[in-house]
């Protein structure tokens, strides 16, 4: 079979203010969310042609993440990640799979931590 795709577009540390969460104050005040995206697709054509038309603009992937995180309130980080993954795969047939990491850097928990988050990997 076809070798699994190892080339990928990488977006790291996208930060947006969103209103996701189960708690009332999360839905009301919102908080910062940090998104990482890996979009797996063959980049050889773009590498050879040096043409943007042979790849996908980082801006387009950024806009999808922004629209979801700044969009309607969801309860779970899992749902935020799933929505981003679904929109990317739905819009760009050349992407074979995506890895989406959604983190909350400022979490109201007892104890010290950098952030909590989820990571999902979805194939077409």
Automatic annotation (TrEMBL):
Function statement: Catalyzes the conversion of 7,8-dihydroneopterin into 6-hydroxymethyl-7,8-dihydropterin, a biosynthetic precursor of the vitamin tetrahydrofolate. Can use L-threo-dihydroneopterin and D-erythro-dihydroneopterin as substrates for the formation of 6-hydroxymethyldihydropterin, but it can also catalyze the epimerization of carbon 2' of dihydroneopterin and dihydromonapterin.
Family of the protein in this entry: Belongs to the DHNA family.
Protein name, as recorded: 7,8-dihydroneopterin aldolase
Assembly notes: Homooctamer. Forms a hollow cylinder assembled from two ring-shaped tetramers.
Dihydroneopterin aldolase/epimerase domain mapped to chain residues: 9-122
Pfam families: FolB
Catalysed reactions, as listed in the record: 7,8-dihydroneopterin = 6-hydroxymethyl-7,8-dihydropterin + glycolaldehyde
Coiled-coil ranges per UniProt: none
Pathway per the UniProt entry: Cofactor biosynthesis; tetrahydrofolate biosynthesis; 2-amino-4-hydroxy-6-hydroxymethyl-7,8-dihydropteridine diphosphate from 7,8-dihydroneopterin triphosphate: step 3/4
InterPro entries (UniProt xref): Dihydroneopterin_aldolase, FolB_dom, GTP-CH-I_C/QueF
Top EC class of this enzyme: lyase
Keyword field: Folate biosynthesis, Lyase
Enzyme Commission code(s) on record: 4.1.2.25
GO BP field: folic acid biosynthetic process; tetrahydrofolate biosynthetic process
């Amino acid at each position: 079979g076809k070798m699994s795709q190892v080339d990928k577009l990488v977006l790291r540390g996208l930060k947006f203010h969103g209103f996701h969460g189960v708690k009332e104050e999360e839905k009301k005040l919102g908080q910062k969310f940090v998104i990482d995206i890996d979009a797996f697709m063959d980049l050889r054509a773009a590498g050879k042609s040096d043409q943007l038309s042979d790849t996908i603009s980082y801006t387009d992937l950024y806009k999808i993440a922004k629209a979801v995180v700044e969009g309607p309130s969801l309860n779970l980080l899992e749902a935020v990640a799933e929505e981003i993954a679904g929109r990317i795969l739905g819009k760009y047939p050349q992407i074979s799979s995506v890895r989406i990491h959604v983190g909350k850097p400022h979490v109201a928990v007892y104890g010290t931590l950098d952030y909590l988050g989820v990571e999902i990997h979805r194939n077409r």
